[in-house]
Amino acid sequence: MIEDDRDLALSIAEYLRYEGIRCDHAFNGHTGFNLAEKNNYDVILLDLMLPRIDGVTVCQRLRTNGNDTSILMLTAKDTLDDKEVGFEAGTDDYLVKPFAMKELAMRVKALAKRKSGQVKKLCVGELVLELHTRMVRREGKEIKLTPICLLLLEMLMRKSPAIVSKRELEETLWSEDAPDSDNLKVQIYQLRQKIDKPFATKLIETVSGHGFRIIGTK
Predict the structure, then answer these.
(1) From 5, 26, 137, 213, which residue has the greatest number of CB atoms within 10 Å?
(2) Pairing of strands 204-207, 93-96
(3) Where on the chain is 4-aspartylphosphate found, per UniProt (predicted)?
(4) pTM over 0.70
(5) Beta bridge partners of 138
């Protein structure tokens, strides 16, 4: 979510969490653009009037760079001309402020579902995760993983090459019923045994003090 109105942003984030939707937040166009380029999001909520870089420019730059993440533009401007500018820049949907939070969540879910229907597999180097069959292969060899390791791998691959924090991984894997903190270390170890150990190049990295990431051959 790229929104400079802090109160509105907090309200949106709180409601989306209630709907089971996790989101990152940037207060200006520059930071938001960098987040969008570094991460593999399902949907981007983009305010039109932003400091540093406006929403239309952010949208245009993302599309120019080949970023096809679904974009929902949020703005108080409601004329047909304003909407036309947004759609020409590459936005997928347009929601006029003020809006009902329920409608926002419905639109986000619809856009995310549309994207999930388009993405068939995740790839990092020669590591492939088929999202429909949940089959994992590296260098053409099938790899069997436990359900938790599969979810862990999917999170890392969706965010690649960005770092995923320990807290985010634990909250996603176990929600609010997170076990002992060492459990994540165990799952990372088990994943490395399957994904990295049999191969010459290691993909999973520990970033001290920050979390973990999976990255292709440098």
Answers:
(1) 26
(2) unpaired
(3) 47
(4) no
(5) 127, 141
Sign of the dihedral defined by the CA atoms of residues 131, 132, 138, 142, in that order: positive
Strand partners, 143: 136
Co-location of 114 and 127 in the same domain: no
- CATH (domain of 71): 3.40.50.2300
Query: Do β-strands 70-75 and 93-96 pair in parallel, antiparallel, or remain unpaired?
Result: parallel
The span from the CA of 32 to the CA of 24, in Å, is: 9
Same domain, 57 and 139: no
Q: Answer yes or no: do 87 and 145 share one domain.
A: no
76 and 154 part of one domain: no
Domain of 205 in residue numbering reads as 121-214
Number of domains in the chain: 2
d(CA 37, CA 49): 20
Per-position pLDDT tens, the chain of length 218: 999 999 999 999 999 998 889 899 999 999 999 999 888 899 999 999 999 899 999 999 998 888 888 999 998 887 777 888 888 888 988 898 999 999 999 999 988 887 665 667 889 989 999 876 788 999 999 999 988 898 899 899 988 999 999 988 887 777 655 566 688 899 999 999 999 999 999 999 999 989 999 998 65
Specify the DSSP class assigned to residue 12.
H
